[in-house]
Design brief:
Layout: H1 2-12, E1 16-17, E2 20-21, H2 32-46, H3 50-62, H4 97-110, H5 117-131, H6 163-172, H7 177-183, E3 191-193, H8 208-217, E4 226-228, H9 240-246, H10 253-260, H11 265-273, H12 275-289
Antiparallel strand pairs: 1-2, 3-4
C-alpha cells in the first residue's frame, strides 16, 4: 500500500526538469499527447515488439548529442562523407523510424510546427511501455530538435561491454550505476540479432538449454535471425529479465554480466524479487535520461519532417 501511494503521487503531480515540464503542449497543442498515444497504439496492436524498438531508439538518441532527435536524420545523399547518426554501425538495427514519421504527420496536421521530434520519441516510448504492461508515468516535454547529426559521434556501450565499461558511458551522461541497471531492464521487451551474441553459443556460463535453443535459431548460414532477450515473457514489460539472468539465461554478454558482477548483482537480485521496486527505479531513470543535454527555449528547431533539418 505504501508503494502504491508513492506511485500515485509520482503519476499525478507535475514534474519539471529544468526548462522541461509536464503538459508543455497544453495550450499550443492540447491533443498532442493523445495523438501520439493513438498512433503508437495502432502500431502496438500489430507489432508488440515496437516497445523494445522505441526504448532502444530513445537510448541511442539521448546518449550521443542528448535527447534531440538527431538519430532520426537521414544522411545527405550528396555528401557521403557527412553521414548522419542513423548510418552509424551501432544504429544499423534501430527500428521505429516509420512510426515516428506517422506520428509527426498526424501532429503537423493538428498543430503545424509545434511538437518536436525529440518529444515525439520520448512520448511514444513512454506510451509503448505502458501498453506492454509497464508503469504509466508522466514525462516532461518542451525539447527542441537538434541541428547536427554525425555518424562519427556515435559511441555507445555495446552488447559485449563489461559492467564497468557500460557504467563509464552512463556516468559520462549523468546516470548512476543503479540507474544503468534499471534502464537495462528494458531488455525485458527487447530482441537481438544473432551477430550480437553468436560468440556466446559456446559459453559454459549460459544455461545449456538456452544455448541449444539459440544455436538452432542462429544456425541458418548467411542470415542474421533474432532472439528475444527475455525468453519467458518476451513482449511484457516486467521484471522477468532479472530472474532470467540470475538463472544464467542472459542472451547478451552485458546482460549476463549484470547478474555475476559484484558491482551490479545485488541490485539485480532486488529487482528480480521486487517488481514494484524495478518499475519505480526504471521510471525515475528513464525520465532522468530523457533530460540529457536537451535543447530548450530558442535553441535548436521544431522540425517539420523528422528526417531532415528545416
Amino acid at each position: 500500500m505504501k508503494f502504491f501511494t508513492i506511485l500515485i503521487f509520482f503519476l499525478v503531480f507535475p514534474i519539471a526538469f529544468g526548462d522541461l515540464r509536464v503538459g508543455f503542449y497544453h495550450s499550443s497543442c492540447p491533443r498532442a499527447e493523445k495523438i501520439v498515444r493513438q498512433v503508437v497504439q495502432r502500431r502496438f496492436n500489430r507489432d508488440r515488439s515496437i516497445t523494445g524498438g522505441l526504448l532502444r531508439m530513445h537510448f541511442h538518441d539521448c546518449f550521443v548529442r542528448g535527447c534531440d532527435a538527431s538519430i532520426l536524420i537521414d544522411s545527405n545523399r550528396g555528401n557521403q562523407s557527412e553521414k548522419s547518426e542513423k548510418a552509424a554501425g551501432a544504429n544499423g538495427t534501430v527500428r521505429g523510424f516509420k512510426l515516428i514519421d506517422d506520428i509527426k504527420k498526424a501532429l503537423e496536421t493538428a498543430c503545424p510546427s509545434t511538437v518536436s521530434c525529440a518529444d515525439i520519441i520520448t512520448l511514444a516510448t513512454r506510451d509503448s511501455v505502458a501498453m506492454a504492461g509497464g508503469p504509466r508515468y508522466n514525462v516532461p516535454t518542451g525539447r527542441r530538435d537538434g541541428l547536427v547529426s554525425r555518424a562519427a559521434e556515435v559511441f555507445l556501450p555495446g552488447p559485449r561491454s563489461t559492467v564497468l565499461q557500460a557504467q563509464q558511458t552512463f556516468t559520462a551522461n549523468g546516470l548512476s550505476l543503479d540507474e544503468m541497471i534499471a534502464l537495462l531492464g528494458a531488455h525485458t521487451v527487447g530482441f537481438a540479432h544473432c551477430n550480437f551474441f553468436r560468440d556466446r553459443l559456446n559459453d559454459s556460463n549460459m544455461d545449456p538449454n538456452l544455448r541449444a535453443k539459440l544455436g538452432q535459431t542462429c544456425r541458418p548460414m548467411g542470415q542474421d535471425p533474432t532472439a528475444f532477450l527475455d525468453q519467458k515473457t518476451s513482449t511484457v514489460f516486467d521484471n522477468e529479465f532479472y530472474k532470467q539472468i540470475i538463472l544464467k539465461r542472459g542472451v547478451l554478454f552485458i546482460d549476463q554480466q549484470l547478474a555475476s558482477d559484484p558491482l551490479s548483482s545485488r541490485l539485480v537480485s532486488t529487482f528480480a524479487g521486487n517488481s514494484a521496486a524495478f518499475k519505480k527505479s526504471f521510471v525515475d531513470a528513464i525520465v532522468k535520461m530523457g533530460s540529457i543535454r536537451v535543447l530548450v527555449g530558442t535553441n535548436g528547431e521544431i522540425r517539420k519532417n523528422c528526417r531532415a533539418f528545416n
